Amino acid sequence: MTTATLPITTGAEYLESLRDRNLRVFFMGERIAEPVDHPIIRPSINAVARTYDLAVEHPELASAHSSLSGRRVNRFLHITESVEDVVAQNRMQRRLGQLTGTCFQRCVGMDALNSLYSVTHEMGPLYHQRFKDFVIRMHEANYVIGGAMTDPKGDRGKAPAEQADPDLFTRIVERRPDGVVIRGAKMHQTGCLNSHWIVVMPTMRMRPADKDYAVVAAIPVDHPGLTFIYGRQSCDTRAMEGGSIDQGNAQFAGQEAMILIDDVFVPNELIFMDGETDYAAMLVERFTAYHRRSYVCKTGLGDVIIGAAALAADYNGVAAVSHVRDKLVEMAHLNETIYGAGIAASHESKQTAAGNFQPDDLLANVCKHNVTRFPYEIARLAQDLAGGLVATMPSEKDLENNETGPLLRKYLQGRAGVKVEDRMRVMRLIENMTLGRNAVGYLTESMHGAGSPQAQRIQIARQMDLETKKGLAKNLAGIKD
Ligand code: SF4
Ligand code: FE
C-alpha cells in the first residue's frame, strides 16, 4: 500500500485499513491469516483505533494543523511547531493511557518523525526534502508510523561491525543506483503490525567502521520481505477463553513483535540516512529525549490503577481507613512526580535549526528514570490495597457454574451493596496491570522501553554539570583556587 484515496479518520476506518494486507505474521508457531480478527491481537488494534477516535472527539487535544502539509492531521503525525505542541503531546498521551489502560503504540512513530525532522535538516537539503516529502505523504493518508530502533545486538561487548554474525544489527547489504537493500531484525517493536509504515533507525552511536549500519529507511509494513513474530504476553490466551471478567481489560492491550527484514529493497526517496555514522548518535539522542518524556503515557495508566485500588478498598469496606487513604496519596504523589518531570521537559522545549521543537534532554531522562521505578511501587501498593484475592480468585466460569456460582456469590461478598461480579472485575483489572497482559506495558515496558535505566543514568551523568555545581559550593564556602 502506498497511497490512500481518503485520509483515515475514525477508529473503524483505521481498523478496516489494516485488513487484507497479507502480512507474514507468526504467533505461537502458526502463521496468522488475518491479524485484525485474531482475538489475542485485536485488543492491541483497538488501542491504536482509540487514538483516531480521540482525534474526532477532541480535535484540539489529539490532532493539529500542519503547516508542512496544509492538513489537519492526527497529533501523532504532527511535526511540532511550538512549545505548546510538545506539551499537547503529553496531555494527549496521559488521556489515552487513561482511556486504554495500556500502551497505545503510536508515540514511537511520533517521536521518530520529530527527531528525524531536525536530524535530516542537519544532514543537508537532500535528506531533509526527502523526509518532508515522506511526512506529507503520511499526512495525506493519516497513517500510523512505527519507529523501529532496537537491534538484536548479539554480543553487547562488540560494535555492529565486530559481531560474529553481521546481521545482528540491521544493515545495508547492497547499494544500487536507485536504492539500497536492507537486512537484519528489530526487537521489541511496539505496535509494528498495527502500523502502515515503519521507519528503521540505527540503535546507537556508530563508528566509521559501522558505515553499513547507519541506515534510516521507510518501509511499508506489507512489504513481502518483512516477517513479524508476535511476542507472547503473560495471560494473553485468556482472550481465547470467552467471557470478559478474567481478562481484566478485555478491550485493550499493547503489542510487541520482532521484525525480520529479509533483503528489503528501499528506493532512494525513502532513505534518510545512508552511511553517515556521525549522525547516528545525534538521532538516537534526539529520539530518546522525545521518547523518554513520552513515557508520561504511564501516568494515564497510573490514574487507572489508582482508581482501581481505591475501588477495591471501597468494595472491601475500608475506603475511609487512614492507612488506605495514605497509600492512595502515595500512589498519586509518585504518579504526578512522573508527570511533572515529563511535562516540564516538554515545556522547556527549544526550537531546532529545522524549526520544530525538541524537549529538554535532562528532564526527559529524569522522567523516564522515574518511570523505571515508580510504576512498580504503585503496582505494589495497588496489590497491597486489593488483598490476596487479586492472585487467588476463581475464574469467571466458576461464577457461572450452577454448583459453585451461588457459593462464590455468598463468600466473595464485600461491603453491602457491592455486586460480587464488580468486585471480581476490579481485582482482575489490578491483576491485568500488575501481573497480567498489561503489566507488559505498565511495568516491563516502563523499565526497558525507550532505553533501560542505565541509559538514562548515562545521560543524566553527562548533563548534571558537576563543575558548575562545585563552583557554586566553593563560592558560598569561601574556597578560592
Ligand atoms: Fe506511547 Fe507509552 Fe506505548 Fe511508548 S509505551 S508507545 S510512549 S504509550
Ligand atoms: Fe516504547
Describe the 3D structure.
With 481 residues, this protein is α+β, with helices and mostly antiparallel strands. The chain folds into 2 domains: 11-277, Beta Barrel (Butyryl-CoA Dehydrogenase, subunit A, domain 2), CATH 2.40.110.10; 290-465, Butyryl-CoA Dehydrogenase, subunit A, domain 3 (Up-down Bundle), CATH 1.20.140. The protein has 18 helices and 14 strands. The chain has helices at residues 11-17, 42-57, 59-62, 83-100, 107-123, 125-141, 278-294, 297-315, 322-347, 361-371, 374-386, 389-392, 396-400, 405-411, 420-434, 439-448, 453-463, 466-477; strands at residues 24-27, 30-31, 63-66, 71-74, 145-148, 171-176, 179-190, 197-200, 215-220, 226-230, 256-267, 271-274, 350-351, 357-358. The strands form 4 sheets. Strands 2-1-10-11-7-6 form a 6-stranded mixed β-sheet, with no helix packed on it. Strand 3 and strand 4 (71-74) form a beta hairpin. Helix 5 (107-123) runs antiparallel to helix 7 (278-294) and helix 8 (297-315) packs parallel to helix 11 (374-386). The longest helix is centred in the last third of the chain and has 26 residues, at 322-347. The protein is globular, with a radius of gyration of 24 Å. Bound molecules: iron/sulfur cluster and fe (iii) ion. Iron/sulfur cluster is lined by residues 103-105, 107-108, 190, 294-295, 297, 445, 449.
